[in-house]
Amino acid sequence: MSDIKKVAIIGLGIGRSHITEGYLPHANRYEVAALCDLNEERLNAVGDEFGIEKRLKDFSEVLNMPDIDIIDICTPPGSHFQLIMQALAAGKHVVCEKPLVGSLADVDAVIAAEKTAKGRLMPIFQYRYGDGIQKAKRIIASGIAGKPYVATSETHWVRGADYYAVPWRGKWDTELGGVLMTHSIHLHDMLTYLMGPIAGLFGRVATRVNDIEVEDCASASLLMENGALATISATLGSQEQISRLRLAFENVLIESNHEPYSPGQDPWKIVPANDEIGAKIDALLANWSPIPNRFNTQMRLFHDALVSGGPLPVTTADARQALELVTAFYESSETRTEVRFPVGPEAKKYKSWRPS
């Protein structure tokens, strides 16, 4: 493949994982040509590790590099909106870590900017990829699963004072939110990816584990558009870390593995209602081709979309759906009322969910 896209990575915390999991496995598709980070020690360490010579501390220099095709934004959440808008205005393709931006108003502004931009924007939701979740997706999409009944989503992780010693964490202005934004957003995306859109949410948030500004515990009751009921719980105070989805359908029970950071990979529990349903599932998955986890598959599909002009694997509409859930969560917790979807400009927290 000759159409190699040159990438500049901005922020080398999670950005390093983008290199190792996303770009290096596809050396025939991507070249990481530049790194940008305010931390010079980290900049040089990652540059030396992967032999990347172009190392910058000024984002404007990256924007002015004519050979860069893709800007991959891995900075703290509070900076995402400005960097995305500048990168799109510069004609670059953009990859951006979660959370994409800090309000529905901001994501709607990004969607508007995309319509006239030369480049394309792909938000990161790498947990969608792996054999487990993709098998579940195929079973549900085929109709074999039947009517959806209920679902549960549990993001039970642990984060303490050492984690929040990083200056930008735990603060509304820089992290934009707590467990809902930075941790459980992945599993909540997986929930809607498999169960479809949300119709209504009643939620509560609390700060119970750490001395921080943002929430570290959350729970909610959801009504899905397809009529199914779902519950969400998330905490950063669980001494055993798990990420778990459990989905009950008319004809099958589906449960993810419990790996906190790779819930999309096998093994997933698939329990058919009877032998006939089991045979249909076996036939559906008989010639399964392995799907690499996380960034590996998402970056491969992104390149395919750029070359073909086809649909992106993850879209800004997907990111909006995730932020819609977050907005509803904060609004419901404050008002003690159910929030109905879609959530638009009339919502109290459309422009910002941060406390005034």
Automatic annotation (TrEMBL):
SUPFAM superfamilies: Glyceraldehyde-3-phosphate dehydrogenase-like, C-terminal domain, NAD(P)-binding Rossmann-fold domains. Residues 133-243 form the GFO/IDH/MocA-like oxidoreductase domain. Pfam families: GFO_IDH_MocA, GFO_IDH_MocA_C3. This is Gfo/Idh/MocA family oxidoreductase. Transmembrane segments: none annotated. GO terms for molecular function: nucleotide binding. Signal peptide: none annotated. It comes from Rhizobium tropici. Residues 6-123 form the Gfo/Idh/MocA-like oxidoreductase N-terminal domain.
